[in-house]
Amino acid sequence: MPFEVTLTDEERDAWIERAAHEVVRRRMEVPAVFMLEMHRPLSFLGSQALIVATPFLGALAGTDNVLKLSKLLEDSRNVERLVNRIEELAAESQAQSLEDPEHSDSAEPAAGMESLPTPDEEGTAPLPEQQPGRRDETHPESG
Asked: What is the pLDDT of residue 107?
């Protein structure tokens, strides 16, 4: 049969580890866990859909990779393993960022945000025309 593929425990763990690391690296733990938990009962159907789509997806990701992913999704326990690993890595990442706040991503302002006015003691930010050295470009003064 052309779609027979085996997935050893080591290969399964490697796929789960790689996927969990990518999710945590991109800081998508919450949406990923939410989606995985919500669709866990459908994991077998997803694996069968991958088999159907193998001729198309195989051209992009490689037939062997698509079939191994299909085999991984056949068992809903693998989805549980992935969720657990994502949660473990997220907890490790959070603990590490608490220990070393200098390397935390939240310390730097987002691009373009550093020039925004800061609130004064009363908690209100000055209007653009009240900021020193700033001209109102929308109403150029004639003269």
From this structure: 46
